[in-house]
Design a protein that fits this description.
- There is one protein chain.
- The chain has 334 residues and is mainly beta.
- The chain folds into three domains: 111 residues, Sandwich (Immunoglobulin-like); 117 residues, Jelly Rolls, CATH 2.60.120.380; 84 residues, Immunoglobulins (Immunoglobulin-like), CATH 2.60.40.10.
- Helix content is 1%, strand content 55%.
- A hairpin with a 2-residue loop joins strand 18 and strand 19.
- The chain is globular and about 55 Å long.
- The two termini are 28 Å apart.
Length: 334
């Protein structure tokens, strides 16, 4: 069970990490690194170790510049490495100390880069580079985050709307087993840190596959919040699942249409790749910001798809600024 914590100030939630608890590491501040980073892996071996968890701010001076960061995995496990707030087409590479390339992410454009990798305990070296233009006056953000072997917050974001709390993001099943999320247990606190209320929230039903994500949202209006609420904590209660993860819905994204200044529509198709009817199919679209956090989560429901058949989907999102990246997937519930 892990927790995230936030603080409400004038209805704007500021996410902070609970002391001694592993959360997403999505702090509102970044760690500034003085001076230029080592330009080679060899030089980085003699540099100091960068902190795990906080966002690190740094710049590239030119397309010939590259920054190496040294991180340590104290124990074997998975790590989530994110490169965000990109002023250009930057690339992310992860190396072992012997120079072996472990993984890379280079999606092009200004989209954030991210790696989710299993690593033995050792030192690792992250390279940030760009062959297609840089801005030496605008800092990128880098985060190296070792994960507990549990259900963790892959990311989350407080979305202010002036009349309540919206917290949305994704949980990551960072275990080798299927899990069911029993509930999200929310506790509310006043300005003195005293608990003044609780609520239990659900997320989508059905098991989450090993090493996979599931979206969540916590929504409360001002009228539903305990009077005097200034902060909150969310705990994930999960249990090992013995139910199978239903598969066989193949999504093919199509077009994106700006239907109004504040709404977008995502259309495409879903194909049943099995030899039996699949029922209760939900297509999910997630829009992310430049630091890989979910801005908007939208859905379309399809009652049933016959064996081998293809059916259209259409997801219309709510208000959001232009997304940095999107993800589309389908989940079968019955």
């Amino acid at each position: 069970m892990l927790a995230l914590e936030g603080a409400l100030v004038r209805r704007l939630l500021t996410v902070v990490a609970a002391a001694g608890v592993l959360v997403t590491g999505l702090s509102t501040t970044s760690t500034a690194v003085p001076g230029d980073r080592p330009d080679t892996l060899r030089a980085a071996r003699h540099a100091g170790v960068s902190p795990n968890g906080p966002w690190i701010a740094e710049t590239l001076e030119s397309t010939s510049d590259q920054d190496f960061f040294r991180f340590t995995m104290g124990t074997a496990g998975h790590a989530l490495v994110t490169l965000g707030r990109l002023p250009g087409n930057y690339a992310l590479d992860l190396y072992r100390a012997d120079g072996h390339l472990v993984a890379s992410s280079d999606r092009g454009g200004h989209r954030f880069e991210q790696l989710y990798v299993a690593l033995p305990a050792a030192d690792y070296y992250v390279r940030v580079s760009s062959a297609h233009g840089v801005d030496p006056h605008q800092a990128y953000r880098l985060q190296f985050r070792p994960l507990s072997a549990a259900v963790v917050f892959a990311e989350f974001k407080d979305v202010a709307h002036g009349h309540g709390i919206d917290v949305r993001g994704e949980l990551l099943n960072n275990t080798p087993h299927r899990v069911d999320i029993v509930r999200l247990h929310v506790r509310y606190f006043d300005k003195h840190g005293q608990q003044i209320g609780t609520s239990d929230e659900g997320i989508r039903p059905g098991p989450i596959a090993a090493w996979h994500r599931a979206e969540f949202e916590v929504k409360h209006s001002d009228a539903e919040l305990p009077t005097g609420t200034t902060s909150y904590r969310i705990r994930v209660d999960a249990v090992r699942s013995h139910a199978p993860v239903l598969r066989g819905a193949k999504v093919k994204p199509g077009t994106t249409t700006q239907v109004s200044p504040t709404r977008r529509a995502y259309s495409g198709t879903v194909t049943n790749t099995t030899n039996q009817t699949i029922n209760n199919v939900w297509v999910t679209v997630i829009e992310y910001d430049s630091k890989a956090r979910a801005n908007v989560i939208g859905f379309d429901h399809i009652d049933a798809i016959a064996p081998g058949a293809t059916t259209p989907y259409n997801v219309v999102d709510r208000y959001s600024s232009a997304p940095n990246a999107t993800r589309v997937y389908a989940t079968i519930y019955g």
